[in-house]
Amino acid sequence: MKEINEINLPDDLKYSKDHEWARFENQYVTIGVTDYAQDQLGDIVFVELPQKGDVFKKGDEFGNVESIKAVSELYMPLGGKIFEVNAAFENHPDLANTSPYEKGWMIKVENDNADNINDLMGKDKYYKYLQGIE
Hints:
Layout: E1 14-15, E2 20-25, E3 28-33, H1 35-41, E4 44-48, E5 55-56, E6 61-67, E7 71-75, E8 80-85, H2 95-98, E9 107-111, H3 123-130
Antiparallel strand pairs: 1-2, 2-3, 3-9, 4-6, 5-8, 6-7, 8-9
């Protein structure tokens, strides 16, 4: 496993306490699991994601990832309607390990509240959260 200071945390993303990331792009938000989450899980062998059109509230479970270590739930860092699902996970669940922020995005959501961004952490705050400082 990586040391905390080795975890990749892009500056342009927001992070949840459940270790999902969110990239805000106009009215859409792309969501995936953080480098920290995939590192803790180990080799991911299966990803279950919702269907396009499904609607979730902030905090709802929207899927799960299965690794060689455990099955972990995925939680919505914000509410909204699923606009797109990354179909590549059907054949390549390891994308969450190899490219968590690029090819390994999981869902795109139509953001239902512009204030959702304020409920998430920036890079520095998430880094402190991982260290147990906040």
